Amino acid sequence: MTPRPDPIAWQSYRLPIDTRTCIMGIVNVTPDSFSDGGRFYKADHAIDHALALADAGADIIDIGGESTRPFAAPINADQEMQRVIPVIEKLAPRLSIPISIDTVKASVARAAVNAGAAMINDISALTADPQMAGTAAASNIPVILMHMRGTPQTMQVQPHYDDLIGEIKGYLADAVMRAEHAGIKRSHIIIDPGIGFGKTRRHNLLLIKHLAAFQDMGQPILIGASRKAFIRKTLQAPGADEIDAASASAEIGTQAISAAAILNGAHILRAHDVGATRICATMIDAIESATAPTHSFPEQTRR
Question: pTM above 0.90?
């Protein structure tokens, strides 16, 4: 088994990824996110939901005000701040775990950090806003760098790769180098292969299957697959109606992906249902850490 990365420690926070899988709970303060759009659009609802996720075992609360589902319409920074800043301001004093701001805009990230956010989750890997890298470096907080081909408006228009794993690894390696050159500590950099962002169903399944290929980059790996379309399409029977993102089937499928992701090297899972994901992660972590004399078990051949 590949050694786990060191824990991520900063300010008063510590993510113990060296000993177990950490869970990032999703709070979408949006009217149009694919799974829970509109449910937590009001600030009070978003705050209550975040507190419930923390009680369920979240290690991080990820707050976003702009939907990044395929073909979602962009919003401006003022709109985004109006959605997320009041939530962060009221939530930060009530949480002992870090709040992550899910944004590609440096102005939103700065305002969020000033309001109490302690991580930046940038799906553009610092490319959408030239000021984002400097903002993250000046804040001295962890940053999540994700792979995406195109933008949310274009990413699902016939995505193609000649070398899926190699191209995504190369993109993330460049992103890590770019972040370091901007002054972001390497120990503060988390990588995300970008499940569902410019990938077909097959691409997403292959990424989970071959996730171990990213371990030699030496960075903590985050996977955000919760309830996404590739899971629902895989489970959908021929001729049947599309599976709803909030259905039990989508969540069970999510936990299967969660288990496979952990076994293949994920250190952080971004999830809608934190309680179910915590149970899944606890069991898989226990399996991974179990030890016994090698002579105790007969050789088995995988089918």
Answer: yes
User: Would you give the end-to-end CA distance of the chain in angstroms?
Assistant: 21
pLDDT, tens digit (0-9, with 9 covering 90-100), for 93-111: 999 999 999 999 999 999 9
Q: What whole-number distance in Å separates Cα of residue 36 and Cα of residue 27? A: 9
Task: For residue 240, give both structure tokens.
Answer: 């049947």
What's 147's DSSP letter? -
- Looking at the annotation, which residues are catalytic? 228, 270
Enclosing H/E stretch for 85:
helix 77-91
**Which amino acid is located at 54 in the chain?**
A
Q: How far is CA 55 from CA 94, 95, 117, 168, 214, in A?
A: 12, 10, 18, 35, 31
Domain ranges of the chain: 21-286
Q: Kindly give, in sequence order, each residue whose CB lies less than 8 Å from that of residue 131, ignoring residues fewer than 6 positions away.
A: 106, 107
Contact (Cβ atoms closer than 8 angstroms) between residue 146 and residue 104: no
The CATH code of the domain at 21-286 is: 3.20.20.20
Give the Cα separation of 180 and 34 in Å (integer): 33
